[in-house]
Write a structure and sequence with these properties.
The chain is of the alpha+beta class and 363 residues long. It folds into two domains: 3-144 and 271-360, no CATH class; 152-242, no CATH class. The protein has helices at 3-46, 51-88, 91-97, 102-143, 238-242, 253-266, 271-299, 307-333, 339-360, and strands at 152-159, 162-170, 175-185, 188-201, 206-216, 224-232.
């Protein structure tokens, strides 16, 4: 088989793979936007939102996030749909009969997967976070403006050797309850301050502590000081309590890495949530190769029912994959398992399934 024919086959597969994928994504995004608009139209009317903002602030920034979210499903469907057509038309048999190995046939599929993986990684790392800044701010302003913190039992390290504890924090009034700050030196407690309440004073940029006690353990007598109120300046601000989980989606990957290191220093109990997001931004694009491998391996064998059966099996596997991503992601956020392991388990499981299907595929 001459090289020109092989090149034509590669371009034919790449063109149809990517063409089917982008057409499918465009179609599903049109449907999603219609349903989303129907759901939110009352909010738009009630808040008197300008048409320009709806289109160019909300929906333009809505598309990258949800297109990337649905991409694993439609990569799978695109591969299965296109390859099943080749199989039903006996084109796969003709290609293999003309001296092209099944291994070689995978090249254009994986090249297409590489293009989509790089595209997905760049979207996730840079484009989507910047788009989310406008989309999420729009949602908070017009759709979901009410926000109340449910944060309780907050532990943080604000400086080396300095730890704080707040039993609960009210984001609306910027008031914390049952506040404690402890300072250690050489792993020994040197001072401890407790207060019934802490309130942020925006004028002086300090915390006003009420009904406080200060215990100094650095002296033999262990001095105790108390009072009704005292102002204190510490490395802690209201924004540290108000970080919403959706804020993760507004951080580019370099920003997210920097923020994780800051949380690690402070001993923040939400660290696992941010680590899951960090690892997902690598694992998610990598899944493109796994789903492509499974899709091709499933679709190169003729079955009763033809393309419909293959698409049905592909849809089932896609939904199981997305379910696994969500379930293991939530387990990781809860600290039930290591963050990296929880994010990569679905890929590991489906990679094993893909390799088995590849070995069983007709050669």
């Amino acid at each position: 088989m001459n090289k020109t024919f092989i090149k034509k086959i590669d371009l034919y597969i790449i063109k149809n793979f990517l063409g089917t994928f982008f057409f499918s994504i465009a179609l599903i995004m049109a449907i999603v936007i219609v349903f989303d608009f129907a759901e939110k139209i009352d909010n738009f009317i009630e808040e008197n939102v300008a048409l320009y903002e709806i289109i160019f602030v909300y929906y333009i920034n809505f598309i990258p996030y949800f297109a990337n979210f649905f991409s694993p499903l439609f990569i799978f469907i695109s591969v299965i749909f296109f390859t099943s057509k080749l199989t039903s038309n006996s084109e796969i048999i003709a290609i293999l009969s003309n001296g092209i190995s099944f291994h070689r046939l995978m090249y254009p599929y994986f090249l297409s997967a590489l293009i989509l993986a790089i595209f997905s990684f760049y979207l996730t790392a840079y484009v989507i976070p910047n788009a989310n800044k406008e989309r999420i701010d729009f949602e908070y302003k017009y759709i979901d403006s009410k926000y109340t913190s449910t944060s309780t039992n907050i532990h943080k390290q604000i400086l080396e050797g300095t730890f704080i504890y707040v039993k609960s924090y009210d984001n609306i009034r910027d008031v914390g309850y049952n506040f404690t700050i402890e300072k250690f030196k050489n792993k020994e407690l040197v001072s401890k301050l407790t207060a019934n309440t802490m309130a942020w004073d925006s004028i002086t940029s300090s915390w006003k502590l009420k009904d406080y006690y200060i215990r100094d353990y650095s002296t033999i007598n262990r001095k105790v000081k108390s009072g009704e109120a005292i102002d204190t300046v510490i490395n802690l601000y209201p924004k540290d309590f108000k970080i919403r989980l959706k804020s993760i989606e507004k951080m580019t990957t370099p920003e997210l890495k920097s923020f994780i290191e800051e949380l690690r220093l402070k001993g923040d109990d939400r660290l696992d949530t941010y680590l899951v997001e960090k690892y997902k931004r690598i694992a998610f694009p990598f899944s493109t190769f796994i789903l492509t491998l499974i899709g091709v391996s499933l679709s190169t064998k003729k079955r009763r029912g033809g393309t419909g059966v293959n698409i049905g099996v592909g849809l089932a596997l896609s939904f199981i994959y997305i379910l696994f991503m969500q379930v293991f992601g939530e387990l990781s956020k809860a600290g039930t398992m290591p963050s990296m392991l929880g994010v990569w388990i679905p890929n590991i499981i489906f990679l094993i399934i893909g390799l088995i299907l590849y070995l069983l595929a007709p050669k």
